[in-house]
Design goal:
The protein has about 100 residues and is mainly alpha-helical. Helices cover about 45% and strands about 0% of the residues. The chain contains three helices and no strands. The longest helix has 21 residues. The relative contact order is 0.11.
């Protein structure tokens, strides 16, 4: 099975794990970060450039074999995604009493 909610075009025939474990969905993502305090116009330009690259057809030859699907998003949406994922993993750690040594 694949860990995403939807089937992956890179792995035809493998169903999403959520079909057997309702609600299960783990997406692996990669992002570009800038130091805190980076001026907003710089962040906006970096975001625009990264989104242009992420959606460029030339990049597909590198991403398709692994089933990676680039998603262009705003800096605010990326920040929200990070917060959502962090909350999810904190809850999992707390529910299972996982602690960092």
């Amino acid at each position: 099975a694949v860990p995403s909610l939807k089937p992956s075009p890179a792995f035809p025939g493998l169903p999403p794990l959520a079909e057997q474990v309702p609600g299960y969905a783990i997406d692996i993502w990669v992002g570009v970060f800038a130091p805190a305090g980076t001026p907003a116009p710089w962040v906006e330009r970096l975001n625009r450039e990264v989104n242009d690259i992420a959606t460029a057809p030339e990049l597909r030859i590198f991403l398709d074999p692994d089933g990676a699907i680039p998603t262009a998003m705003s800096a605010a949406a990326f920040t929200a995604r990070i917060r959502e994922d962090l909350a999810q993993w904190r809850k999992i750690a707390a529910d299972r009493k996982i602690k960092v040594d």
